[in-house]
Design brief:
binds adenosine-5'-diphosphate; binds zinc ion; GIY-YIG endonuclease; alpha/beta; Rossmann fold; seven-stranded parallel β-sheet; six-stranded parallel β-sheet
Length: about 725
C-alpha cells in the first residue's frame, strides 16, 4: 500500500535532501516551507519540507516516520522560498543551510513562528457594575480599576508598569471579581502616518521619488547622489507614500552604518513601528522581530545584510543604501551578496528597488549604462555648498611627522583656529603594522599566517588582523638576537600620539574598532563630537560612512599609496569609494569643506582623474580598463578555494580540477592564495573567469560534481561565486 512521503532539508551543510514517511492525516496538513521534527541519526532535528509526494512508489515503508509537525503554515513566504532556492543554486551552497540561514536561530531549535499571545488584564462584567466608592480604603486598587476601565483593549504588562500598577493590585481586584486575565494576540498597529513632516524636496529629490513611486512592478533604480545630497530624505519620502498605500519597506544598510543616527531618522519620521535588525540582537530579540515582521506588524525594517530575508507580507519597496559597500557580501559559509539577492527578491516580488550611493559599484554603473537600471541623480548638496574639492598633496621631499606633512599640520591648525573640526583618516588600526629588526631586517611574522601582525602599543600586544592571535611584544629579534626592534609604518594609535602632542589643547576623538567597542560607545563619542567644539576626529573607515558631522571643514586622507599598487583589481575602486565617502564628511554644515589627499604618486593618471573630474569619470576610466582585461563586470568570476595542513596537496587538488575546462572559461591557477597561510592552514586558489555567466555556471556544475566525487582528503574546499575578496 503506497503511503505519502515528504522530502526535507536540515540545517546542516549537506548536499542532499532526505525522505520521510507521513500518515495521510499529516500529509493533508503539510505544505512546502513548513517545519517538521524528524529523527536524524540518533537525534531529533528541525527540518524544512521541500517536496510532498502523495504516493511514493513503494519505497516509503522503509523510510523513517516524522516525529512532529511544527507549523500550521509555511514559515517562508513563497517568494522567500524561491529566493533561497535561487541563492543555493547560484552561490553553490547546500539548500538546507541556506534555508535555515534565512530564519532566526531559534526557529531552527523548534520555537514557534507565531507572535506569542500576550496576557492582558480586563475589567469583568461584575467590575462594570461596581461603585468606585467601594474601594475608598484601597486607593491603589481603585487606581488599577480605573485604568482597566480606560483600557477596553486590555491593560498590557508594559502599560501597567508605566502607570505604576502592580501585579498585587490587579490580583486583589481579581479576587473581588472585578478583573480578569485573558490571552490575546496583539492586533497589528496602523502602519501609516507621519510623526514629523517631510522636508520640502528639491526638484532632483522630487524627480527621484516620483520616478520610483510611478513604478508598477519590478524596476531597479540606481540613485547616484553626491554625499550630503539628501538620499536618505528620498528614501523616507518614497517609504511615506508606500506606507499610505498599505505597503511595507525593507532598507538594507552596511554593517557599520546602522548607527543610532540612521535609525533615529526613520523613527523620528514615522509613527509606525520601525524594526532594526543588526548583529547586536540576542537570538530571542531576533525571533521576536521576525515574528512581528511576518505577522505584518511593522511598517519598516532597517537592517544589515541578513535582514534581506525578513518576511514582509506586503513588501512595497527595497532600498539598499551605500550599495557599493563590501559588507553586503558574506565572506564565510553561504557567500551571498545581499545587494544582488535584493534585486532578485524585488524581481520575485515584482516591486521597485532603489540602490543608493555617492560612489556606486562599477557593476551597478555598468548595469545603468546598459539600460538595465534606471539612473537617478542628485547632483546638489542640500546645504547648497558644492561638494568639497579634493586636492592632491605631493609628499615627495616633504617633512613628515608620522606620515603627515608639515604643511598639512599647519592647515589643520588654521581650521582649528577658526573653531572648526578636522577629520584625519587612516585605514589602519593599531600602532604600527610591522615590527622590524634594525640590525638584520627581520620582520616579526604571525605564527599562523603568512602576514605580519600589528603592534597595538596600548594593549602591549602584537595582534594578527587575519587570524586574531595575540602575542606579547618580543624583546629580541628571532634571527640575530638584537634588541633593536622598531615599529615600521603607521596605524591610528601612533597617529593619535603625534596629534595629541602637536595639538594638546584640542579634544581628539579616535574612532576605530579598538577604541570603540560597542554601538553605545560610538553613540557617546558621536554625541561629544556633535557638541561642535573645535577638535580632531581620527579614525578608520568606521568614520567614513553615513555620519553627518556638521562642524568638519577639513578632511585629511593620510595614505592611499598602498591601494594604488595592490594586486587585487578592486583595490583602486574601493580606495576611490572610500576617498569620496570620507571627503564627503567635509563641509556638510554652514562652511564649505576642503579635502587633502596625501600621496607619493600625484601623477597617477586615475588618481588625477578622480581628483579633477570626479568619481563618475574615474569609474568610466576604470571600467574601460576592466573591459580591456575582461574583468568584472565584463567577465564573471568564481573562486575555488582549497584549504588544509598541506599546501601542495591543496594546490594539486585544484590543479586537477582545472584540467579539461571548456574553452569559454579562463583559469588562473591553481596557485597559492595571496595570503598563503591563514590561521595555520595553507590555502590554494583557482580563479575562473568567463565572459559568459551561463558558461561559468555550467562549468561550476561539472566541477561541483567532481568535488563531491573525489574526496579531497584532509582538505576543505568551497566555491565563492562573484568573489569580492581575492586574498
Ligand atoms: P546623503 O544620504 O545623500 O549623504 P542625507 O540624506 O544624510 O544625505 O542629507 C544630508 C543633510 O541634508 C541632512 O541633514 C538632511 O536633513 C538634509 N536634507 C536632505 N534633504 C533636504 C531638503 N530637501 N531640504 C533641507 N534639508 C535637507
Ligand atoms: Zn635581527
Ligand atoms: Zn595570523
Amino acid at each position: 500500500m503506497p503511503s505519502p512521503c515528504i522530502q526535507v532539508v536540515v540545517a546542516l551543510p549537506l548536499w542532499h535532501a532526505f525522505d520521510y514517511r507521513v500518515t495521510p492525516a499529516e500529509y493533508a496538513r503539510l505544505h512546502i516551507g513548513m517545519r517538521v521534527r524528524v529523527p536524524f541519526g540518533r537525534r531529533l532535528v528541525t527540518a524544512l519540507v521541500t517536496a510532498l509526494h502523495a504516493s511514493s512508489d513503494g519505497v516509503a515503508h522503509d523510510r523513517r516516520a516524522i516525529d512532529a509537525i511544527l507549523d500550521d503554515e509555511a514559515v517562508l513566504t513563497p517568494s522567500l522560498l524561491e529566493l533561497a532556492h535561487f541563492a543555493a543554486d547560484y552561490y553553490r551552497h547546500p539548500l538546507g543551510d541556506v534555508l535555515f540561514q534565512t530564519l532566526p536561530v531559534l526557529l531552527r531549535q523548534g520555537d514557534s513562528a507565531q507572535i506569542p499571545p500576550e496576557l492582558r488584564w480586563y475589567e469583568t462584567a461584575l467590575g462594570r457594575l461596581g461603585q468606585p466608592e467601594l474601594l475608598r480604603t484601597a486607593p491603589r486598587q481603585r487606581r488599577a480599576w480605573q485604568a482597566l476601565r480606560e483600557e477596553p483593549e486590555g491593560l498590557s504588562p508594559q502599560l501597567a508598569q508605566v502607570l505604576d500598577i502592580t501585579m498585587r493590585d490587579l490580583r486583589a481586584l481579581e479576587k473581588r471579581g472585578y478583573a480578569e486575565q485573558k490571552e490575546i494576540i496583539p492586533a497589528a498597529p496602523p502602519l501609516c502616518g507621519l510623526a514629523e513632516s517631510a522636508l520640502p524636496a528639491s526638484a532632483e529629490q522630487a524627480h527621484a521619488r516620483d520616478s520610483v513611486l510611478a513604478d508598477s512592478g519590478f524596476q531597479v533604480s540606481l540613485l547616484m547622489g553626491v554625499t550630503g545630497s539628501g538620499k536618505t530624505e528620498v528614501y523616507l519620502q518614497i517609504i511615506e507614500h508606500l506606507l499610505e498605500r498599505g505597503r511595507q519597506a525593507l532598507v538594507l544598510v552596511p554593517e557599520i552604518s546602522l548607527t543610532p543616527q540612521t535609525l533615529q531618522r526613520f523613527r523620528q519620521r514615522f509613527l509606525c513601528p520601525v524594526l532594526a535588525l543588526h548583529s547586536g540582537l540576542s537570538d530571542r530579540e531576533r525571533l521576536r522581530a521576525w515574528q512581528q515582521a511576518r505577522a505584518g506588524h511593522v511598517g519598516i525594517v532597517v537592517g544589515t545584510r541578513s535582514a534581506l530575508f525578513t518576511p514582509l507580507p506586503r513588501l512595497g519597496v527595497i532600498i539598499v543604501d551605500e550599495e557599493h559597500d563590501p559588507s553586503f557580501k558574506q565572506g564565510e559559509g553561504f557567500r551571498y551578496h545581499a545587494r544582488d539577492l535584493a534585486v532578485v527578491r524585488a524581481r520575485l516580488e515584482q516591486i521597485p528597488i532603489v540602490l543608493g550611493s555617492a560612489t556606486p559599484a562599477l557593476e551597478s554603473l555598468h548595469n545603468a549604462e546598459r539600460g538595465r537600471y534606471r539612473l537617478l541623480r542628485l547632483q546638489q548638496r542640500s546645504n547648497r555648498h558644492p561638494p568639497p574639492a579634493l586636492h592632491l598633496l605631493d609628499l615627495r621631499h616633504q617633512t613628515l611627522h608620522e606620515g603627515v606633512a608639515e604643511s598639512v599640520l599647519a592647515r589643520l591648525q588654521q581650521h582649528l583656529d577658526a573653531a572648526h573640526q578636522v577629520l584625519v583618516f587612516l585605514n589602519r588600526r593599531g600602532y604600527a603594522p610591522v615590527l622590524l629588526c634594525h640590525d638584520c631586517g627581520w620582520r616579526l611574522p604571525c605564527p599562523r599566517c603568512s602576514t605580519t601582525p600589528v603592534w597595538h602599543r596600548r594593549l602591549g600586544r602584537v595582534i594578527c588582523h587575519h587570524c586574531g592571535i595575540r602575542q606579547p611584544l618580543p624583546q629580541r629579534c628571532a634571527a640575530c638576537g638584537s634588541q633593536d626592534l622598531r615599529p615600521l609604518g603607521i596605524g591610528t594609535e601612533k597617529l593619535q600620539e603625534m596629534l595629541a602632542q602637536r595639538f594638546p589643547h584640542y579634544p581628539l576623538w579616535r574612532i576605530d574598532r579598538d577604541s570603540i567597542r560597542s554601538p553605545r560607545e560610538l553613540e557617546h563619542t558621536l554625541q561629544s563630537i556633535h557638541r561642535h567644539e573645535p577638535g580632531i576626529l581620527l579614525g578608520t573607515q568606521m568614520l567614513a560612512k553615513g555620519h553627518h558631522f556638521a562642524a568638519v571643514t577639513l578632511v585629511v586622507i593620510v595614505d592611499i599609496d598602498a591601494a594604488l599598487f595592490a594586486s587585487d583589481f578592486r583595490a583602486l575602486e574601493r580606495c576611490a569609494q572610500l576617498v569620496i565617502q570620507v571627503a564627503g564628511r567635509a563641509g556638510r554644515g554652514d562652511h564649505p569643506g576642503e579635502v587633502l589627499l596625501q600621496t607619493h604618486c600625484s601623477d597617477h593618471p586615475l588618481l588625477q582623474t578622480l581628483v579633477s573630474a570626479g568619481y563618475e569619470s574615474f569609474a568610466a576610466a576604470l571600467l574601460d580598463e576592466r573591459a580591456a582585461m575582461g574583468l568584472p563586470p565584463f567577465g564573471h568570476q568564481a573562486l575555488l578555494i582549497a584549504q588544509g595542513r598541506d599546501g601542495e596537496q591543496a594546490q594539486a587538488y585544484l590543479a586537477a580540477l582545472a584540467q579539461d575546462l571548456p574553452a569559454a572559461i579562463a583559469p588562473f591557477g591553481a596557485m597559492p592564495a595571496p595570503i598563503e597561510r591563514k590561521a595555520g592552514d595553507f590555502r590554494a586558489h583557482l580563479l575562473l573567469q568567463s565572459p559568459s555567466r551561463q558558461a561559468l555556471h555550467a562549468a561550476l556544475t561539472t566541477l561541483q560534481q567532481r568535488m563531491h566525487e573525489v574526496r579531497p582528503g584532509q582538505l576543505r574546499c568551497w566555491i565563492d561565486v562573484d568573489p569580492q575578496d581575492l586574498s
